[in-house]
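Running low. Got one?
___
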Amino acid sequence: MSVVAAKLVEATTELSEHVISHAKMVLAGFLVPRVVSGEVVRKYIWKAMRLGVWRVLKPESRALLLALRRWGVVKSPTLKSILLNIFLEIELCTVRGKALFYGIILTMKNCVEKAINIVRDFGKILYTGISYLNNPPMYRIYG
């Protein structure tokens, strides 16, 4: 019986990792800017310092942000994807980012078929996430 339970837990964690990665990908489409320039990097450095995320970021990420703050427009797709992941990590520490993230997860959970149409509605996802965050912690499922 414990083998079956272990397989069930493993399948649940794989599914949740897949859902989380998909939700982050959708969230990146909402929050992360398309054009990465030195001014955008500078803005995210200040946002990270203001939110207290700067201490939590990896040293490599901090060094990359500091090096690119005086850079022009980033054209390299690899460097741009690394920066967008760092920006998403910073955005996930804001209340708006958390609300949108939980709103996307709840939307995906409630209606898988309708998720494509609902995900395009920014206001509805934000409303769902804020209402989820306003629930007491004992009623929250995701954290």
Notes: Confidence is low (pLDDT under 50) at residues 1-12. The first helix runs from residue 2 to 31.
